[in-house]
Amino acid sequence: MIKIIRFAIIGLLIGLSSSYTIVTFNLLADSNAPITGKELFEQVIIAAILGIVIGLISLIFKTERFSFTLQLFIHFIVVTICVFAAGNIGEWYDVTSIATIISLLISIVVIYIISWGIALLLQKRDIEEMNLFIQKRRENL
Predict the structure, then answer these.
(1) What whole-number distance in Å separates Cα of residue 108 and Cα of residue 81?
(2) DSSP H helices in the chain
(3) Quick check: 74 and 46 in contact, CB under 8 A?
(4) Rg of the Cα trace of the chain?
(5) What is the rounded distance in angstroms from the CA atom of residue 24 to the CA atom of residue 34?
(6) What are the CA-CA distances from residue 50 to residues 37, 97, 122, 141 (Å)?
(7) For residue range 87-138, what is the model confidence (pLDDT) as tens digits?
(8) Rounded CA gap, 53 and 63, in Å?
């Protein structure tokens, strides 16, 4: 249960950070498009829910049923579907414009790459710490 809560909280934080970044870039790109407090609150709620869902989807990496490549593919597809659904609710893109859909897809890929880059660095650090612990333990025997 703690693992589920941990993944949900990490997803929430990544979702809110990503949302903040996207909103900031959109405001910088189109300074004539002010956002009201209500609209901002709605976007934060959508991003928070999306982040939690993506965090929970990430639990797929804790199962040993599938290869890592298959886990990564499933995760990416489900995340993309969820982001497009949230984007449709939050009106992040115009469903009639291929350019906005491609832009959203590029945003998904960039955020996905950054998140996985961070995750891989953290995993590498954990592996190095475990190896160091094992090495010290062998030296003490």
Answers:
(1) 10
(2) 2-29, 37-57, 68-89, 98-140
(3) no
(4) 19
(5) 11
(6) 20, 23, 23, 49
(7) 888 887 788 889 888 888 898 888 778 877 887 888 899 899 999 999 988 8
(8) 17
Residue with tokens 């949302």: 19
What type of residue is 129?
Answer: E
- The C-alpha atoms of residue 101 and residue 94 are separated, in whole angstroms, by 7
Q: How far apart are CA 44 and CA 110, in angstroms?
A: 20
Under 8 Å CB-to-CB from 63, ≥6 apart: which residues? 71
Side chain identity at residue 76, one-letter code = F
CA distance 126 to 134: 12
Residue-wise pLDDT tens digits, 21-69 = 666 666 666 666 677 778 878 888 888 888 889 889 988 888 888 887 7
The length of the chain in residues reads: 141
Confidence class of residue 78 from pLDDT cuts 50, 70 and 90?
very high
